[in-house]
């Protein structure tokens, strides 16, 4: 039988010739191996013999390391950074090397998966592109390239807010953003009524999106009312501190409609009323103008041809009426009743006049 670190290996893995083969070795197969031979008679072990201990080490290849750096202040205007190289897999010892471009900065062999390098730095200068390399066998693993440039915080610190509303349009949550104009390693601190707000509280939560900005989440209520502002400094040096403007926030202020909004709404309503009134007035003026134009056209049509026709018609009717009156006078002198015939003739003349008017109307339309 075979033992690994004093533990019996599963017999199903042992071949018929008592050999033990590891087909795909991993770091888990590392350890001390011993082969034990036993002579048994009547169910009793009579003799045991063990092989010499065989120490097997299976090296796991090192994974691509991660690279990062932290800046520190050593003395007045003297700074350095610590570059960290770390792999998640790999059997020690591991040799780590730090490169600036193609130049080797330093290397070290350690019995763990992490190594650090100390580099002096100068603020506001681009110091190059750095990369970590790790090796524990014939294979070398490399990290990503990172630029090394330390920019101190500066410029104004801006703070703006966004909010979330409930179904009744009341503000219930706030998001306050704090962002400096520049700075590669800023440190943020929020304040409420000059009291610092750390990480998380009963009504707030601080979320830093380094290196760009910090976000303060606030639940609107009585306890959250007050003046907010943020403070920004360098994480490696707090000698320079920049404050944002202070902003007073409470439930009434947040749910108050600004005077500008009221003015804009009222102004838009007034403009709409004026437009509607102007359209109505223009419609009235246009209709009156059309009526005057139509009257003038009709007068022009009646001036020459139609007035002649109407005058001739009136003269004819006058002559017929005088003739009818004379006939009626003569008949009355004889006392004869001939009203029916004259009335019939007069009715016939009336019918003719109606037809004539229809013709006059057609003439008017043609004119």
UniProtKB/TrEMBL annotation:
Pfam families in alphabetical order: Ig_C17orf99
Keyword terms of this UniProt record: Disulfide bond, Glycoprotein, Membrane, Receptor, Signal, Transmembrane, Transmembrane helix
This protein's GO CC annotations: external side of plasma membrane
Superkingdom: Eukaryota
Ig-like domain segment(s): 1-57, 156-243
Alphabetical list of InterPro entries matching this protein: Ig-like_dom (IPR007110), Ig-like_dom_sf (IPR036179), Ig-like_fold (IPR013783), Ig_Fc_receptor (IPR050488), IL-40-like_Ig (IPR040878)
Segments traversing the membrane: 257-286
GO biological process, one term: cell surface receptor signaling pathway
Protein name: Fc receptor-like protein 3
Organism: Oryzias melastigma
Lineage: Eukaryota, Metazoa, Chordata, Craniata, Vertebrata
